[in-house]
Write a structure and sequence with these properties.
By secondary structure, this protein is of the alpha/beta class. It has a single domain, classed as Alpha/Beta hydrolase fold, catalytic domain (Rossmann fold). It is built from seven helices and six strands. Strands 2-1-3-4-5-6 form a six-stranded parallel beta sheet, with helices on both faces. It is globular. The termini are close together.
Amino acid sequence: MTKILFLPGAGGSPGFWHAVGARLPADRPKEYLGWPGLGNQPHDPSVRSVDDLLRLVEARMDGPVDLVAQSMGGVVAARLALARREKVRRLVLCVTSAGVDMAALGASDWRPDYRASFPDAADWITAERSASFLPVEKIAVPTLLIWGDADAISPVAVGRHLEQRLPKARLEIVAGGGHDVAVTHADHVARLIAGHLA
């Protein structure tokens, strides 16, 4: 059975997706990844960029996987869906940029609040204003987009933009959901994901 790899955002915690994962079928293999040096996670001198995070996830792709990713983790997931097409069966992108110009779509700058919350996080995570452009039109796998309508960091306009560009995407908007919609609305988000991955 296809393994689900859960990727967090810049908060870095492998626990971010636990509430959703616990509500998905118990027989599905699941792995929760964390990001060394981000949020409150222990530092690893070998991790200095998103490219290094990509390498960490690739090492866990020992067969076809479903990728479920939030925020910055969605950039990693989208890049893998482009670079390792044979390994990604389904994709879930939750409140992410996925290579979109976020500022042009009304997103607020998350970096000051992030640095205040995680003063010891690796410097590289807040050094860049936005993720590199990605040709998401080439992502061929079925993709579920989950957005909260109260998210200032990744507003619904970003989700709508991605839905138009990804050939096999469907956008679901969660009323009252913010950037942590997968935590605050875990039941709803888990139902959406279960349906998509079934």
